[in-house]
Amino acid sequence: MNQEITKNRTWCCIGLMTIAVAAACSSDDEPAPASSPVGAAGAPATGVTTLQVNAQTPPVTGKDDIEAWLAKGDYKEWTCEKEPHNAKSPSPHGVNRVCSNLLVAQYKGQLADERPIGSASVKEIWDAAGEVIEGYAVEVKTQATSSGGASWYWYDRVAGNNVVADGFGDTGSAKSICVGCHIASGTDAEHITSEYSRDYIYTQVTQLECLNKYRNLLLGLRVT
Ligand code: HEC
After folding, report:
1. How far does residue 168's CA lie from ligand 1's centre (Å)?
2. Taking each helix axis from N to C terminus, what angle separates 207-221 and 2-25, rounded to the nearest 10 degrees?
């Protein structure tokens, strides 16, 4: 009898935790509205954006700003992969963990559809042993249309403070390296690393992945 009560209490407790977890993984927070993508002079301009920087939206104004924003750790509250893993082909990123902001995590578009302006992903780049974060890669969509990758901001800093890319995808290494490969995301079986691999994002971390993380935690707590 007592055992029965204890068991019921445990399940009740687990039930309450489940509700809390569902809330933690929920998509109630509305993605921050993006302001209109116009340049300083009011004309549409590639590489110029009025996206407001906030917990969901990294700055697109260069290394110092993005590193300061990353150090605050807001992206860790996004929908993130459970743990670092080896690069998924054709990725050159090494051991990594991807976090998707709300606009990316909730995206359900078709292959040819555009992701919304403000879509952003952060990739933690880990050492080979998966113990220490050595760098970051970031991509942010700053206009309503991807325009061949030009409207995405690309940042990549690897071990040794080596900046591989820092800029918009219409020029330099952002274009030749990052866009050169991300443009293929979702286009064929070789270029799919998750459901909704498309529009320059390879790995879209979904709410489900977030829930799974806590489900495993709860299963670990269950009494037998
Ligand atoms: C040869 C292909 C390739 C190149 C070059 C490449 N990436 Fe990636 N990238 C991937 C793949 C595949 C993934 C997802 C899986 C993984 O990394 O394990 C990814 C993931 C990412 C992610 C996480 C969001 C997403 O799209 O999945 C970011 C951010 C990112 N890359 C940024 C960059 C930047 C910045 C550059 C340029 C310096 C770059 N990448 C160059 C293939 C590439």
Report:
1. 15
2. 160
